[in-house]
Amino acid sequence: MSEGSRQVGMIILCIIIPPLAVFIRRGCAVVFWVNIILWILGWIPGVIHALWVILKHN
């Protein structure tokens, strides 16, 4: 699987289940728990945060 395909898959996962995408990329770190809280408060903040984590922390 190429890096581009993996990146697209992670972006799609960010949109569907943001905490799972963050967990796969960063593990059970503080950023994961922040994403869980944002996702509970609203789907859009969770998605935005997950996209930021995935695209910023390659």
TrEMBL record:
The keyword Nucleotide-binding does not apply. Keywords: Membrane, Transmembrane, Transmembrane helix. The chain crosses the membrane at residues 7-24, 30-55. One of its GO terms (cellular component) is membrane. Pfam families: Pmp3 (PF01679). InterPro entries: PMP3. PROSITE patterns: UPF0057. It is found in: Membrane. Belongs to the UPF0057 (PMP3) family. This is Transmembrane protein. It comes from Dictyostelium discoideum.
